[in-house]
DNA sequence: CACTAATAATTAGCGCGCGAACCAAACTGA
DNA sequence: TCAGTTTGGTTCGCGCGCTAATTATTAGTG
């Protein structure tokens, strides 16, 4: 077996990054049937939820809030516009800025999507304490890596 | 603001799933420069590390170990074969099974990749205790969701 | 006022990640 | 033996997620 001597053995299941990676894959899989009735992907859901909280913002701001890049978001918001859930308009004072506004239809969807977080949390089955701990750890990782 | 009365307000940053989602995006971003010298993507790295631990397995087994689907893995292992890192052969006793074996070149890469986990862990900056806790929580989520 | 630099978004190209449909090899049983 | 089923992989189609390059608009400079 280990004929290579001094080299450290790394096993995938022991890597915390792999644990996160697998958990996220499982989560997006689990969200699919929950979001299918709303005709949303998980990323589209993230964008809509962000805009439900505050809309009338430009793409750059949306990118900062979702922690995604503009090239990722451009096709996403185009699809959401095609579904009639939001408006994409250039700002009056600055033609470069793209202002995103939730439509009436988008607000209707917000009410439909109201129970999604509870359903999801229920499937995940974490205690409130574990949930808080998990958020804290993930936030720590995200912040540490964002600071290059 | 909240004129809609009884509806619960959900904020994206408070969703544990979003915290995981963002952390994983940050992680794959952080892995990119680390894996670029090895000419590997994160998923390719996951596959190689899994096969470094034990090769000579079929695609189905690899799928179970990586928690990824066969349709995801087929193009990945083809690219790894094209790079000369592994062999794809049909099993002698069962033509359906695709047996994956790490090549000499693939073993050489293993030695090169030896320090990647340490470098990554260092950037993430978790204490060993937090790291264990995070693995446990993610494992719990993955298991709960895998059980439908 | 021209000319450059900075900024906001988009496009191009690549590699996942997955559900659905498909195909061929292997097993099953009357 | 030979339909019928199961099994292991592949193919197809779609939607991210990102880097690099491009376009268009605005701001800044002499």
Please outline the helices and strands:
The structure is a homodimer of 148-residue chains.
Chain A: H1 16-35, H2 42-53, E1 57-58, H3 59-66, H4 70-82, E2 86-90, E3 98-102, H5 104-112, H6 116-124, H7 128-146
Helix pairs in contact in A: 1-6, 2-4
Chain A binds a DNA duplex (30 and 30 nucleotides) through α1, α2 and α4.
Entry keywords:
DNA-binding, globular, homodimer, mainly alpha, 61% helix, 148 residues
Number of extended strands of chain A: 3
Indicate the multimeric state.
homodimer
Characterize the biggest β-sheet of chain A.
3 strands, antiparallel
The chain pair forming the largest interface, with residue counts per chain, is: A-B, 57 and 57 residues
Report mean pLDDT of chain A, rounded to a whole number. 93
Percent of residues in beta strands of chain A: 5-15%
| Helix-strand pattern of chain A | HHEHHEEHHH
Protein architecture, described:
Two copies of one chain form a homodimer. By secondary structure, chain A is mainly alpha-helical. Helix content of chain A is 61%, strand content 8%. Chain A is built from seven helices and three strands, in the order H-H-E-H-H-E-E-H-H-H. The first copy, chain A, has helices at residues 16-35, 42-53, 59-66, 70-82, 104-112, 116-124, 128-146; strands spanning 57-58, 86-90, 98-102. Chain A has a three-stranded antiparallel beta sheet. In chain A, a hairpin with a 7-residue loop joins strand 2 and strand 3 (98-102). In chain A, helix 2 packs across helix 4 (70-82). The first copy, chain A, is globular. The two termini of chain A are 38 Å apart. The mean pLDDT of chain A is 93. The interface between A and B is large, with 57 and 57 residues. Chain A binds a DNA duplex (30 and 30 nucleotides) through helix 1, helix 2 and helix 4.
